[in-house]
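Q: I have six molecules that I believe assemble together. Could you output structure tokens for the complex as a whole instead of separate predictions?
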Amino acid sequence: MTDFQEILDRVMVNMGKLGELLPKEMDSFKTLREAALEEGALDPKAKELMALGISIAIKCEPCITSHMNNLVKMGVTKEEIKETIGVAIFMGGGPSIAYGGKALEAFEQLSK
Amino acid sequence: MTDFQEILDRVMVNMGKLGELLPKEMDSFKTLREAALEEGALDPKAKELMALGISIAIKCEPCITSHMNNLVKMGVTKEEIKETIGVAIFMGGGPSIAYGGKALEAFEQLSK
Amino acid sequence: MTDFQEILDRVMVNMGKLGELLPKEMDSFKTLREAALEEGALDPKAKELMALGISIAIKCEPCITSHMNNLVKMGVTKEEIKETIGVAIFMGGGPSIAYGGKALEAFEQLSK
Amino acid sequence: MTDFQEILDRVMVNMGKLGELLPKEMDSFKTLREAALEEGALDPKAKELMALGISIAIKCEPCITSHMNNLVKMGVTKEEIKETIGVAIFMGGGPSIAYGGKALEAFEQLSK
Amino acid sequence: MTDFQEILDRVMVNMGKLGELLPKEMDSFKTLREAALEEGALDPKAKELMALGISIAIKCEPCITSHMNNLVKMGVTKEEIKETIGVAIFMGGGPSIAYGGKALEAFEQLSK
Amino acid sequence: MTDFQEILDRVMVNMGKLGELLPKEMDSFKTLREAALEEGALDPKAKELMALGISIAIKCEPCITSHMNNLVKMGVTKEEIKETIGVAIFMGGGPSIAYGGKALEAFEQLSK
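A: Yes, here they are, computed for all six components at once.
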């Protein structure tokens, strides 16, 4: 069984290390991320869901984990997750079913 | 200059031909698309924007064109488009700037 | 060591859950899959081998596992698997050697 | 309208230039390609169709063109092409409809 | 024939527009880019060549164009370009031959 | 925790098996790899770093492992690794942070 909390912990540890090694790159990326996800014509949760949909479509397991964690903290519902998976399947076919399934597992584990 | 109306026209013609050649596949895909994009916890425009964000992140020019066309018909605003491009850049780096630029061109041409 | 039976089991469990959450999307996808893989000018095994070749080329481990399982049930030979891996290497370079190797492991484990 | 003959011509010219610049790489790649596509448990046409399916799934227009040209020379039928597109749609979702449409255009133009 | 100068011009125009629409994202991305490409253990040309190799491997035509333009301004040699294409072919197989060919065309056009 | 030595061992075992099953493909690929990575206008380490950068950008964990192992044997420094990760982040956005983090883990484990 994949332990999504462990994947998340490693992503966080690695981001900390990268922040020390590449401070300018990581600081500017952080600014980019905050600008991209801030409240605007679209709200932050819609943007995180979009990031999750992209993560599923591009088959990126640590990305799925990280954005799911952000979404759980925002109080995302299972309905919102499942519809995001639906869009990803439409855009990604069979592989997005496999990675949409991972997203569902991540939701179940991280929302406990 | 890329003519996004021409790209759209060709996508439409090709979808018609594929519908004749692969009626079962294309009919079931149409059902899948309608289910994935229908009103639910997320509204259809949010889902189309998500499909656009995925299209930019995966560098798919005809997909960008097709989803942009759907969005223009739904009355999407430039604010919503630009923020979707922002999320794609966050998720896709430099290549998403290039394809986000194509999305912007498509918006300008198709919303005329 | 990767346990491909466990990967397969999780894909199956997740597909069951997605079937409950997204019945319209998953039913139409099932219809699409059956139409795409049915006997025609190409036989079902040739189509599953093509799906396997695509899975290797796009580096999708759960897809490799799932299509290998279908192929093993169809009585695929090691010759057919190895030649599919050969085409994937031609189309995907070094990464397809790594994922072709995973396909070989999956074949060995799932054909026991 | 995309001119697939022109795409093909450019691929051929470029391969010639790369053959002069990178003779060892291109010669060994040629050997790899011949080995991967030769008659075996799968016949050369099945392997070219697999290469076409991969080309559609990975959204590679010059690859679609080049493999379609090989297939036309082998006497591929429209039935075989359409079923290959069907498998690609199953594996690639919406983007494979767009690139499957390009494959169909390439078939129509190159088989004239 | 692809006009790489025109592709470059459009990328530049689009980046200007994105800079007005998404100033925070584009400014932070610019800072990220400068940090990533500055002189360090690796020199700026080696880093641009790496960006070109990635661009070929991921089949991104506007990226190839943009990084080739930077490289031409830096005085890149045909030897350096061809060896970068060689690495991309090793990592990307057949599709990287097609996009490596595009890189070669871009070099020839933009270095005039 | 990911055990990168174990990933490396499996890649090596699988390459051995593929070498027996597909001798012509694997021999020609070996010739291709040696030609692509040999001393020239760019030195072998610069080429391996480029292969690593591509591996991160395309999210290929076994590729990251294998090229990192080659680099460690060549005496790569942490500075060179971190700057390669920086280029990959510039070219790949968020997902390259996740896979750049994996590269850092692989470096730490394999350079012990």
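A: One point stands out. The CA atoms of residues 19 and 105 of chain E lie 29 Å apart.
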